[in-house]
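As a warm-up, study this chain.
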Amino acid sequence: MTPENAVLLCIVVPFASALLVVVAGALPDLRETMTLISAGILFYLVAGIYPVVAAGGNPTVTPIEMLPGLGVTFTVEPLGMLFAGIASFLWFVTSIYSIGYMRGHHEQNQTRFYAYFAIAIGSAVGVAFSGNLLTLFIFYETLTLSTFPLVAHHGSEEAKRAGRVYLGLLLGTSIAFLLFAIIWTWVIAESLDFVAGGLLAGKIHGPMVGVLLALYAFGIGKAALMPFHRWLPAAMVAPTPVSALLHAVAVVKAGVFAVVKVVVYVFGVDSLAREASAGWLLYVAAFTIVVASVIALRSDNLKQRLAYSTVSQLSYVVIAVAILAPISVIGATLHIAAHAFAKITLFFAAGSILVASHKTLVSELDGIGRRMPWTMGAFFIGALSMVGLPPTAGFVSKWYILQGAFQADQMAAVAVIVLSTLLNAGYFLPIVYAAFFREERRSKPARKRSKTGVNDGAHPPLIEHGEAPPTVVASVVLTAAATVVFFLYPDIALGLARQVAGVSP
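Now compare it with the structure written out below.
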């Protein structure tokens, strides 16, 4: 099979999987088997393309040409290779997790869930392999539309309201800002292709650079820069596998991926570094990092805390690429992968806690590590990565981001990263301490009277539970292990990141 055919199959397989899931909907075992097989095939295809890209090749195919020089084009470059690898691997893991979660939590509309999940993965791969801004925009919008039913999955008024916020902000920003930026780019360059060194390099100067950059940065709403971040916490009403999709597998990764791709291949790192009007992006990202971290620190709801942590961590990628140093671009690329493995571990753990104990608040987690040691041990590893401590992936990416900040003499970025690291430790590590070293809280006393007529609630019973279903726990442990493996063996991701930044090994 040629690399070009493999690229096309990578797009086709998830969409075909969605159709097969619908057909097999009345047979849950067959439906879920088709999902796992499709995820395995996609990962196999993506892995087969990697050696070509690692060797410097960029497989390209244009199945649809709309105008001369403009069509739906797929090109696999190093940044897209990394994103597609993450999405395809985590689709398989999330599918395993979903089987245990959706059944254990007795979720409704499971066929619809698996079908739209497959479409979302196909859209994410389309974003990853986009060879120009037109292709990126088409699959970016498809990703938004396919994840809306997942956000509103429960059908409650709260879920519908969250879905409206989700759809309104993401469609609103992309149509009002991103589409306008793409049209402006076409007018300037007469092309929408991604070009090494920057499509717009030497073609736009002065304040207009900052304006166009703002249209792209805020138009890519999935990157969750403040003030266009509210869709992300609102979407936490969705089932935990959907939260994992939003935060780790596809949606937010498509956002920060697009920001990095635009900076590197549309503007060009060197060109932006010469433009004073582009300097604002670093400070907006810094503001988002700190404010989101403070909100996370004050949140008692576990999923909300994780959501604002994601808002903060996404801006690590943005601030890294905004530093505009080659080594910080390496850090931005690595943090896309590092955050994916760590954050999916944390959301998997939150879902495991919900399925096993029905607890959703941080204040309820005292002693839970003794009943759920595998889940909370994995949570600990994910938390370490968010903080940026070894032996986890987050240490590797933060190391390169800090090196880039020092190299570019961006002390403001250094200060923000140090401060946010302390805040990360402040809202993650106490959860781990409480889970393993505090006494478990008893359930709420029942209001009943004893023979003496006095309320007999002095010694209420403890809630009896253990770990979540095996597929749920296995998935949590697997992603936690991947976070450590990334630290020990970062060469694959690091090699691709160096290619993105144009840095020799």
